[in-house]
Amino acid sequence: DTEVDVSNPGYVLIPGMYADVDLTTVEHKNVLAVPVEAADGSADSARVFAVRGYGSIHIVPIQTGLTNARLIEVESAELKEGDEVVVGSRASLKEGDHVQPKEIDRAPAQN
Predict the structure, then answer these.
(1) C-alpha distance from residue 106 to each of 32, 83, 88, 103, 110 (Å)
(2) What is the mean pLDDT of residues 82-98?
(3) Higher pLDDT residue, 111 or 37?
(4) Alpha helices of the chain — where are they, by DSSP H?
């Protein structure tokens, strides 16, 4: 549910009136996206912690696109489809650290 304030200078709208609205936003298909919890920063300063090779952390700057409650579109970066990214706390991680990746179960995104 969404509430919208509408100016009503001519008093055409009266309390109790309502409207049904279908709102379509921009949608990009077949794009690379990461969980919101995987990204640090936003816009031009965003980055993710990718796990490559034998569990080595690589800090990868990304440019972000569309964002919803669960996913952030990655428009351009060194990040590739299939790369694993760290989700959750990254405070103690730095470039080159070694970690043991653990896959998490994520339900498909709902649009």
Answers:
(1) 16, 15, 14, 9, 12
(2) 92
(3) 37
(4) none
